[in-house]
Amino acid sequence: MLSDLNEIYRGDSLFTAIICRENINGIWEIFLREESKGDIRLSESGSSLKSVFIILCTLRLMPKTEKIAWDKIILSVEEPENNLHPALLRRLLNFLAERRDERGFSLIVATHSPVGIDWSTKRSDSQIIHVKHDGVSASAHVAIGYSGSRDILDDLDIRASDILQANGVIWVEGPSDRIYLNKWIELSSNDTLKEGVHYSIMFYGGKLLSHLHAMAPPEETSKLIALLSLNRNAALLMDSDRHLGKPARDGKPARKPRMNLNETKTRLKDELSTMGGYVWVTEGREVENYISKSLMARVTGNAAVEVDPYESVIESQSLASFKGDKIALAHRVAEHAQNEHLGGHLDLATMLAGLCDAIAGWNGSR
Description:
Blueprint: H1 2-8, E1 15-22, E2 28-34, E3 38-41, H2 47-65, E4 74-78, H3 86-103, E5 106-110, H4 114-121, E6 129-133, E7 138-142, H5 145-155, E8 169-172, H6 175-188, E9 200-203, E10 212-213, E11 225-226, H7 227-230, E12 234-238, H8 263-274, E13 278-281, H9 293-300, H10 326-336, H11 348-362
Parallel strand pairs: 4-5, 8-9, 8-12, 10-11, 12-13
Antiparallel strand pairs: 1-2, 2-3, 6-7
Helix pairs in contact: 6-10, 9-10
């Protein structure tokens, strides 16, 4: 028992003895000895020690007094996280799993802890049963794969901000996209949604997109980075890469060019949408094409400037002064952008409203 106790409390405490002692009133007490503290009554110790001690007594002392056929035993532990911090809970769960392997009993842990859920998802010999109650009756089903685990975390309202991390990640191609998006979110949300608090922005860097996967299958984890394993709340902003259509013939306008999404973008769009992520594919060629005519006039000082939604904005002769610097253009646009520039131009207002709604949902404020 002493060895087991020190295995579970490794790094927190080191016990040198377990002592049973009778006091003058004939009452027996258990004392735990630590080198720097002396003998401490178990009755005066924290709840975690008492909980662990009960489990160890069940595993080590009961077999001394009762004949136990371990392969016919179901050991059930209810909500151990009530008294254990995360590292201690992981060590206890590992200890119980090892004893289960040795003795052949079945182990059931009832928990509301994301630590227990995370621990179970990383094992091939366990399953998670999601129990729900609708106020009238209870139901239970096996949580299968990523979506099943996500449903549990959502039901428990467990958020990344609980461990001082943003509650969602927006993936964009590069730094200029981040500048636009932060400004648009600030305007659309009346400055209530902030980067680093309600969301984070990460770059996928163009061609590096091929190394990403919404939730990589086990056989592909060494090759692909799973977006949803970094944060279960994810949004993806991608350029449609539409180009100018053929010139109009017979007085008829050219048709709107079709999206030119490559295989990688199409794959990620489908994967993330299926798993509840937010996907935004630009209606125009690139993110820069969301700069409205009125905003472009303020940025350039020339009211006549107009860039087709399917042209490369930074390559336009009207913006030659920026010398192809997308980041400089983005900063200038952010300086001049107002709420009035969000509506009436392509699908910016609609997609931005959807993104802000998703971010609000990530943070429990929808």
